[in-house]
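Might you be able to review the protein record set out just below?
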Amino acid sequence: MKPVFTTLSKFTDCISFMNLPYMGYLENEDFAFVKVHKMGLKLPFQSPTFRPEFYSFTIVTHGTGNYVLGNESFDLHPNHVIICRPNSFFSSSWTKMEKVYSISFNKRFLLRHMPEGIDSIFELNGKNGYSCCLTQENMDYFEQTCLEMYDICISDFSYKDELLANLILNLLLLLQLEQNSQIKLKSYTEKNSNIVNAFRENMDKNFSDLISGQSTSLMRTKEHAKLLNLNENYLSKVISNCTGKTINECINDKLIDEIKYLLKYSDKSMKEIAALFAFSDLNYFYSYFKTHSLHAPGALRKDFNSYLDQTTVYNHHPLIKQNNG
């Protein structure tokens, strides 16, 4: 079945919407640590769709599940870890749950306690998320770090936030090394890396603002260059050299990804989806989507609904009914 569709973004709102007990530690909306296996999920479990404004880091010691991030799907098994970027549609399902830890944080939490120049660890090669299976030795280290974080969370240490930020950064750097060993890295300067990361963050935020109704304008090269206080040609060159794609290609890929998700997992009409992304002409929306995805939007939705009818139906936890106004 389709996950219940929401655009909730704050950690506490997501937990509250699922009517789940909070078994962990929370500092405002900047940082949260959760022992997921202690939350009493009724298995099999299917979460609603959210659009988190925070990063989430999940360590699966013993468990089996699946994360859907935007238009990407990640199967999770014992000894898996996954990091999810903010501002993408997210849902999870679980069939087994023995030990699973979740660390949620926003970028400002780390920057408040760490030096500048750590932007590259958030890049994830431009993907919505990254998942990998660790060796038992590395998983033992990740789990031990989680337990250490929990002890710090419930302590009275004066500098607990600084300690937590250091431990998060340590895990992120280890995961980055794991990812780097699996991909061919491009060589570019830290300055350019920061520009690429800032561009992607601004692009993601623009899409989240469009979907939430806070903006009605899809940003292109001119707007991104102005926001970053850079020359358009210079920005275009940096993005192209570092990613292998033009700015418009990056934006178009993101746009198609967002449209696909809404076609599959929401009940919004074609007209509503087109309007969200500033398409004033519905025919142009159909033409644009088919040109860039090689699928007609109606056919994609129909095919996906047929696929869902043939797959396992997960029971979801009783939810608090959302008022969509």
